[in-house]
Every structure is written in C-alpha cells, then in structure tokens.
Amino acid sequence: MDDIHAAFEELKARGVTVRGAPHVIYTDEGTGTEEWMAFFEDPDGNALALMSRVRT
C-alpha cells in the first residue's frame, strides 16, 4: 500500500468503524524500512487490517 494514512482516512470518511490508527509495528534498521498497520472492522464486526512497508 502506497499511503496507509490516506487509505485509513478514506475508510473513516466512508463511515468504516476503525479500531486503531496507523502505527509502526516493526522497524528494520538493516533495510531502512518500517512496517505500519491500521485496524478496522468489516460490516459483521470482524477485524481487518491495512499493512504498509515504507522506507525511513
């Protein structure tokens, strides 16, 4: 995913129930990347997530 923050804001704007804003879950200093995740719910209340790896 190119821009997890923009995707998260788009989901919120569409009324999706969010469980957690984008946040870093892992930093790989060897490759200079971070993994980010954000959590939301589907219409049945199941947890789903967005994930993005970005260069720092």
Q: How far apart, in Å, are the first and last alpha carbons?
A: 15 Å
Q: Helices and strands: which structural class?
A: alpha+beta
Strand order of the largest sheet: 1-2-3
Question: Multimeric state of these chains?
Answer: single chain
- What is the CATH-assigned architecture? Roll
Give the overall average pLDDT: 96
**CATH C-level class:** Alpha Beta
Overall, the morphology is elongated
Rounded to an integer, what's the Rg over CA atoms? 12 Å
Characterize the main sheet.
3 strands, antiparallel
Low-confidence stretches: none
Q: Helix proportion of residues, in percent?
A: 10-25%
Got a strand count? 3
- Stated plainly, the CATH topology is called Nuclear Transport Factor 2, Chain: A
Task: Describe this entry's structure for a reader.
The chain has 56 residues and is α+β, with helices and mostly antiparallel strands. It has a single domain (4-55), classed as Roll (Nuclear Transport Factor 2, Chain: A). 18% of the residues lie in helices and 52% in strands. The chain is built from one helix and three strands. It has one helix at 4-13; strands at residues 18-28, 33-41, 47-55. The protein has a three-stranded antiparallel β-sheet with strand order 1-2-3, covered by helices on one side. A hairpin with a 4-residue loop joins strand 1 and strand 2. It is elongated and about 40 Å long. The two termini are 15 Å apart.
Q: What's the layout of helices and strands?
A:
Elements: H1 4-13, E1 18-28, E2 33-41, E3 47-55
Antiparallel strand pairs: 1-2, 2-3
Keywords:
single chain, 56 residues, alpha+beta, Nuclear Transport Factor 2, Chain: A, three-stranded antiparallel β-sheet
